[in-house]
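User: Okay, second chain of the day. Same drill as before: sequence in, structure tokens out.
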Amino acid sequence: MIEAKVGNRIKDLRNKLGISQEELGFRSGVHRTYIASLEVGKRNISIATLEKIVIALEVTLSEFFDF
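Assistant: Same drill. Structure tokens below.
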């Protein structure tokens, strides 16, 4: 369940920025296919990777988890 919530949050914030999965991957240093897997809730995310993505999404961790 948490995987889906985190994935949906990544997708929502990425869409609000108007960027593609590829652009988010470039900004965060995380491969696009991994981001795609996260967004559909198929992968667990490490704290270190979450930090990279949150920074790339231009939000704080507390803003990220405000869902």
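Residues 54 and 61 are 7 Å apart (CA to CA).

User: Thanks, on to the next one.
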